[in-house]
Write a structure and sequence with these properties.
Blueprint (H helix, E strand, L loop, with lengths): L2 H9 L6 E5 L3 H7 L5 E4 L3 H4 L11 H12 L6 E5 L8 H15 L3 E3 L7 H9 L3 E7 L15 H17 L3 E5 L3 H10 L4 E4 L7 E4 L1 H4 L16 H17 L13
Parallel strand pairs: 1-2, 1-8, 2-3, 3-4, 4-5, 5-6, 6-7, 7-8
Helix pairs in contact: 2-4, 4-5, 5-6, 6-7, 7-8
C-alpha cells in the first residue's frame, strides 16, 4: 500500500480534479504517467484488447500480466488494478487473489465492483493493508443490462448508502459509473473520499476514461466517450507508407540493414 500517494489523492477532494486513465502496456503507461494521478489497469481490456462483448472472461492472469507491463512505465501515478469477475466472491478468495496481484505486480491498490453486499470484503482487504478503490452505479461484472442509475429519490438514496458503506469499509475512493448528475453530485458531497466519474457528469472529484476511447483507437459509440485525438489516422498513414515502400523496394535501405 502506497500510503503517501493515496493520501495525496484523498487530499485532492474539493481542491483539484483527479485525472485517471486506463493503461494496458508499458509504452502507454509511460505517456500517461506524466499527466495522471491514477492509472487503472481495467478489466475493460476484455473489450478493447480481446474483443469480448463484456468483461466477464478476463482472467486473473490477464490482469497480472498487463499490470506487470504497466508498472514498468509508472513512476509517479497511483497504480490500481481491477480484480476480475469471480476473483472476490468471498473474503478468503478475495484476500488470496488480491495478495497475488499485489505480490506479482507491485501495484498500489486494487479495485472491486460493488454488488451491494461485499463491504466486508473491502474491509478485510484494507485491514490486511491492501488499498481498495470501490465502484458503484453501472457495474459490468454484476449487471447484465446497461442503464443509467440514480434517476429517482429511491435510487439516489440507495447509491448514497452504498457509497457510505464502501467508505466506512475503508476504500480510499469510489468510481461512479453512469449516474445522473444529481446522483453523482449528492454522493460526492456526502462522502469524504474522492469520487471518480465515468459517464457521471462533472460533479465528481475526478474523471476516468478508457485510453483507447480517448485516442480514437476504439470505435466506441458510448455517450460519455469523447475522442480527444484520432490516432487511427496516424497509424493508417504510417502503415500505407510502409506498404508502399516495401512494394517499391524502397524499404529497407542499406542503412536499415546489417553489413557484418
Amino acid at each position: 500500500m502506497n500510503k503517501k500517494k493515496i493520501k495525496e489523492i484523498i487530499l485532492k477532494k474539493n481542491k483539484s480534479k483527479i485525472v485517471c486513465l486506463t493503461a494496458y502496456s508499458k509504452s502507454i503507461a509511460k505517456i500517461l504517467d506524466s499527466y495522471c494521478d491514477i492509472v487503472l489497469v481495467g478489466d475493460s481490456m476484455a473489450n478493447v484488447l480481446y474483443g469480448s462483448q463484456n468483461t466477464h472472461k478476463i482472467s486473473l492472469e490477464n490482469i497480472i500480466q498487463h499490470t506487470i507491463s504497466v508498472k514498468k512505465g509508472i513512476k509517479n501515478s497511483l497504480l490500481v488494478a481491477d480484480m476480475p469477475k469471480n476473483t472476490y466472491n468471498d473474503v478468503k478468495t478475495a484476500l488470496k487473489n488480491a495478495r497475488l496481484i499485489k505480490k506479482k505486480t507491485k501495484c498500489d491498490a486494487v479495485k472491486l465492483e460493488s454488488n451491494s453486499k461485499n463491504f466486508n470484503i473491502i474491509s478485510e482487504l484494507v485491514r490486511k493493508k491492501i488499498a481498495v478503490m470501490g465502484h458503484i452505479g453501472y457495474t459490468p461484472q454484476f449487471k447484465k443490462k446497461f442503464k443509467i442509475e440514480g434517476k429517482n429519490k429511491f435510487e439516489i438514496n440507495k447509491l448514497i448508502r452504498e457509497a457510505k458503506l464502501i467508505e466506512k469499509a475503508g476504500a480510499f475512493g469510489i468510481v461512479l459509473e453512469c449516474l445522473t448528475p444529481k446522483a453523482s453530485k449528492l454522493i460526492t458531497s456526502k462522502i469524504n473520499i474522492p469520487t471518480i466519474g465515468i459517464g457521471s457528469s462533472v460533479n465528481c472529484d475526478g474523471q476516468v476514461l478508457v485510453i483507447d476511447d480517448l485516442i480514437g483507437l476504439s470505435q466506441s459509440k458510448l455517450k460519455f466517450v469523447k475522442r480527444f485525438v484520432d490516432i487511427t489516422k496516424l497509424i493508417e498513414t504510417g502503415v500505407k507508407k510502409f506498404k508502399s515502400e516495401v512494394l517499391k523496394k524502397q524499404f529497407p535501405k542499406a542503412k536499415h540493414s546489417f553489413s557484418k
